[in-house]
Structures are given as structure tokens and as C-alpha cells.
Design goal:
Blueprint lengths: L2 H8 L6 E5 L8 H10 L16 H9 L4 E5 L10 H5 L2 H16 L43 H7 L8 H7 L8 E4 L3 H7 L6 H7 L10 H6 L1 E2 L2 E2 L6 H4 L3 E2 L2 E5 H6 L4 H7 L4 H11 L1 E2 L5 E8 L2 H10 L6 E3 L5 E3 L4 H16 L3 E3 L8 H7 L3 E6 L2 H8 L6 E5 L11 E4 L2 E4 L8 H11 L8 H9 L6 H12 L4 E2 L2 H5 L6 H12 L4 H20 L12
Parallel strand pairs: 9-12, 9-13, 15-17
Antiparallel strand pairs: 1-2, 3-16, 4-5, 6-15, 7-13, 7-14, 8-9, 10-11
């Protein structure tokens, strides 16, 4: 399928986000079917719902028979988010877009399976089970009716999933939970939707001190919005609620072959962009026909690495001004150099294996685990990937290499998972805060060091790698957060998610990318926040 041709037509539709995915990466669960059967009133009443769609195993087999899939979202606005009828009325426009997307895909491939939102509502009374479906061309089974874990699907592919179960459940007066945990980057969407309770009164009533070290201070500061606290998180249990995304791994076998020790370079302060360029060239191997058989660098998420390079050069792609308003800051010397370095590695040196449109989301990680990449740029997940993929070669861990304007090393720290209480339970917020406070009390007689070691030590064969990995989590000198990650646009919005990859592949120059997209990015962020202010942190975030 010609994805570029498809995307040229998709961009004419009111699609908010989309991603091409490998069906093999889709998570299926019988638990989803259990919820359908025991909690959904549509079960057994529609051709679009179980059991009519078949067993989860049959649905999975049907999905996996396709070579690729497209997931997308639409975005609708209502005057009053608390108006349930208005919120539910946005479903029809989404279904109309779904049909348009289906028709576009059919121009390139006649066999298209289409799944959409909730149960089919075309007919007042479905013909099931007495007669065939009256409108098979318009009837789309629900994504979750197939046993697909929609939240996992969204998270894996950088898709925001906030207008589905969580929002509608709160609007229905029956939230999916009394306390809801969501990746921190997505919480602004819920705050804007008006479904998140302010915690100010509950904090005052309970006397809980969220400046205590047990609480995730990044979440506390960044989700103090318009003068109120809405979201909270923890650092207890080995600080597992955050993710070090600024972490690079290297293959020790390959490094030994070219007589380079990245960890020693880090210790001496010589782990720099220039040094990585030299190593990547030395480690890239081509056969007699010029085909690369071993890459110096692996980059599965170009935008993520661009953010890392900006931070490692003393820059930030996104900040907060003195009023609390989010600002895009692409056009600074620090950031221009980050763009240029990504371009140099990918388009000039040609030492990078980077995700192409027809590759699975984790293809680069798997190639590293196979021993075909010398250095892999990524995050803490690398450790688990190597471990779980059965990597035979030993790995080492280093921070993101320093840029020419950096004064030291810094590792990007994602905000992590936060908790919020739905407005439905506003009056009981103090009770739930106290409950969470008790749950996250440190284990008596068990240190945080022990808890962290229990979680991670088995992933490492190198004591130095583990020591450095731990310091990235615990030493604030290593922890930097770019507000662009917090704005939650760098992956989901096509304008953001594609530009870094295009720079890396050389389809646009760094200067043109910055000059073309800086204003566009600011408009996207302004629309996302819609006047909301980040009042917990100012002047650069």
C-alpha cells in the first residue's frame, strides 16, 4: 500500500491523530470480553457486538491475517463538557470520518476490516439474531468487541485516548474508578475536559504535604494549573512512576572490536556528539555491494531523540513563560544545533538505522537486541527490551552525549504516571487522598535502595551500568524534563511526530524545518491548552 498516497488523502479529513501499526503488536485480552459480557447492556443484542463478532481468538486471527493497520482519532468540542447528550452527539461525526477513511483505504486495497467506537447504532432495533445485518457496509464492530486493549493500543502508538471510556464514564456519572492513573502527559486533556477534581480543599483538610519526597515533584509542579492542584504522583517503590527516556545503550562486543569504551568516555567527560559521530562511523559495516549490515546508531523515535539532544545541549524545545503559558522555542542556537546533529548522523554520515513507515514500532529495538546496532538511543525501556528479547551480547549504559553548549550530562526524565480523582467524587477527595497516602507509605524496614534493586538489578550484568542507571533515577543532576514532552504533542500530532524523522532522513533541512514549523507548533500548543496556565512552575519549566 502506498502510504504516502493514503496520507495525502487522510490529511483532507478532520483526523486528529493517526499511526500505522503492525497487527502483531496489538494486545488482545479475554478480560475485555468479560467486561462486554457482564457490564455492557449491548452484549448479545447487536451484530456489531459479542458474541456475534466471534470469540476473542477468532477476532485475533482475523486481525492478524492483515499485513498492516491504521489507527486514528477525531477530536470534537462541545460548549459544555458536562452535557452528556452533547458529548455523545460527537459520535456520529466520528463514524462519518471512519467511513471516509475506510473508502480511502479501499482505493488501495479492496479488503479492509473496519472497527470503530462502541456498539453500532444505525438501526433502532438490530436484526440480530433473527436476520442478517441490514447495513453491513455501514456497520462497524467496536474495537473493544474484538478483545483489543484500546488503552494499550493508544499508548504503544503515541495516540491520545481521552475521549473514550474515561471521559464518557465520568459524564455518565459512573467513572471507571474513584482514583484514575494515567500517563502524566495525557492529564491536561482530562483537566480541560472538566472531569478532574481540584485537590486544594482535600490537601488542606488532610494536611498532606505534597512537597514531601515521597511525592513526584515534577507532577506536583506541572499539574498545578490555573492556581489549583489537579494531579499527584509518587516516587516510592524505587521511583517506578517515572521513566528515564534519556538513556542510551551500547553493545560491548561491538565496542570492544573497535576499541572504544563509552562508559570511560562518560567518566572522563568526553562522551560528546562528536565522539558518537566517530564511533558510529567506525561501527557501521557495509558489505561488498554497499549494503549496511551493522549500524553505528539505532533511533526508533526521532522526535524523542531530538528532544534528548536539545536537553543535552542546554536547550529546550518547549518552555513555560512567566505567566505560565506554554511556549515553543525551536529557534535557538542550542536547538538548531540539535536539529543539525540529527541531520548529520542520519543524512550525511548515514550511520543510523531509523524507523521507516513500513517497520514495526519496536523493529529498531529488536535489531539492537540481535547485535546489529552498536549504540541505541532510547530510554529505560531499553533495559527491559534487551533482557526480554534474550540479547546475547552484554550491554552498557550511558547518558545522552553532551552537545557543544552543554556544561554537563543530563538525562531526559518523563513525567511518569499520575493520579486524579474524577469530579464525581469531589466531596470525597480527602478520603481518597488519605487512602493513597497510606498505600504509598514506605515499607517498614525496607529501604528505597532495596526496592529499586529488586526491580532492576536482574536486568544488568555490569555493575557500572546498574550504578549509572540508578543515578539517572535518583540523582536530580541527571534529570531534565522538556516541556514539549509534557505538552503531549510531540508524538500524537502529525506535524510534530514527522518532522524529526524527516530531518533525520534528509527530506527537509534543519533550518527549513525550524522556519517552517515553529509558528505552526505554537498554534497547536495554544489550541491544546486553550488559555490554561501552568502555575506550579514558571520561567522555563
Amino acid at each position: 500500500m502506498d502510504k504516502q498516497a493514503v496520507e495525502a488523502q487522510l490529511c483532507q479529513l478532520p483526523i486528529s491523530q493517526y499511526a500505522w501499526i503492525d497487527p502483531q503488536t496489538i494486545e488482545f485480552s479475554d478480560r475485555i470480553r468479560y467486561v462486554c459480557e457482564h457490564e455492557c447492556p449491548m452484549y448479545g443484542t447487536s451484530w456489531a457486538c459479542p458474541p456475534a463478532v466471534g470469540t476473542v481468538a477468532a477476532c485475533r486471527e482475523r486481525i492478524l491475517s492483515y499485513p498492516g493497520a491504521l489507527v486514528f482519532t477525531t477530536l470534537s468540542e462541545v460548549d459544555d463538557i458536562a452535557d452528556l447528550s452533547a458529548a455523545l452527539a460527537t459520535r456520529a461525526p466520528h463514524e462519518a470520518v471512519t467511513r471516509q477513511v475506510r473508502d480511502i483505504l479501499r482505493r488501495f486495497s479492496p479488503d479492509v476490516l473496519t472497527l470503530s467506537t462502541e456498539s453500532c447504532a444505525i438501526c433502532e432495533h438490530c436484526a440480530y439474531p433473527d436476520a442478517p445485518c441490514r447495513h453491513p457496509e455501514r456497520m462497524f464492530p467496536c474495537v473493544e468487541s474484538y478483545g483489543i486493549v484500546a488503552t494499550a493500543l493508544a499508548e504503544q502508538n503515541g495516540i491520545e485516548f481521552y475521549n473514550g471510556n474515561i471521559v464518557t464514564s465520568v459524564l455518565n456519572g459512573s467513572p471507571v474508578g474513584h482514583i484514575i492513573s494515567i500517563n502524566g502527559n495525557a492529564n491536561y486533556n482530562f483537566i480541560r475536559s472538566g472531569i478532574v477534581a481540584s485537590l486544594d480543599a482535600a490537601i488542606k483538610q488532610t494536611g498532606i504535604d505534597m512537597t514531601d519526597a515521597r511525592y513526584n515533584q515534577t507532577i506536583r509542579q506541572y499539574y498545578h494549573v490555573n492556581g489549583s492542584q489537579y494531579v499527584f504522583g509518587y516516587t516510592t517503590f524505587g521511583d517506578t512512576t517515572r521513566d528515564v527516556s534519556g538513556l542510551w545503550a551500547y553493545n560491548k562486543r561491538i565496542m570492544n572490536a573497535i576499541k572504544v569504551d563509552p562508559y570511560a568516555l562518560y567518566q572522563s567527560g568526553d562522551w560528546t556528539w562528536q565522539k558518537v559521530s566517530e564511533i558510529a562511523k567506525a561501527a557501521t559495516v557495509r558489505n561488498s555491494s554497499g549494503t549496511v549490515t551493522q549500524y553505528g546508531l539505532g533511533i526508533s523515535g526521532a522526535m524523542s531523540v531530538l528532544i534528548q539532544l536539545s536537553l543535552a545541549n542546554g536547550g529546550r524545545l518547549g518552555t513555560v513563560d512567566s505567566s505560565g503559558s506554554p511556549k515553543i522555542t525551536l529557534d535557538t542556537p542550542n536547538n538548531r544545533e540539535a536539529f543539525e546533529q540529527l541531520y548529520q548522523w542520519g543524512s550525511v554520515d548515514k550511520t543510523v538505522l531509523g524507523n521507516a513507515d513500513d517497520m514495526a514500532w519496536n523493529a529498531i529495538d529488536k535489531e539492537f537486541a540481535k547485535g546489529n546496532i552498536a549504540i541505541l538511543a532510547g530510554g529505560a525501556a531499553l533495559v527491559n527490551i534487551c533482557y526480554e528479547q534474550g540479547m546475547k551480547d552484554e550491554i552498557g549504559i550511558v547518558p545522552v552525549p553532551k552537545g557543544p553548549r552543554a556544561t554537563g550530562y543530563g538525562s531526559q526524565m518523563n513525567i511518569g504516571y499520575g493520579y486524579f480523582i474524577p469530579v464525581t467524587y469531589q466531596k470525597d477527595a480527602a478520603k481518597y487522598l488519605m487512602l493513597m497516602d497510606e498505600l504509598y507509605m514506605p515499607y517498614e524496614g525496607v529501604s528505597q535502595d532495596t526496592l529499586f534493586k529488586e526491580r532492576w538489578i536482574s536486568r544488568f550484568t555490569d555493575a557500572n551500568a546498574y550504578k549509572l542507571f540508578k543515578s539517572m533515577y535518583t540523582d536530580t543532576a541527571h534529570q531534565v524534563t522538556d516541556m514539549l514532552s509534557l505538552f503531549d504533542v510531540s508524538w500524537g500530532d502529525p506535524a510534530f511526530s514527522t518532522v524529526a524523522g524527516n530531518v533525520m532522513r534528509g527530506t527537509i533541512t534543519p533550518g527549513n524545518a525550524i522556519d517552517t514549523y515553529a509558528d505552526t507548533y505554537q498554534t497547536v500548543v495554544n489550541d491544546k491548552f486553550d488559555g490554561y496556565k501552568i502555575t506550579g512552575i514558571k520561567n522555563g519549566g
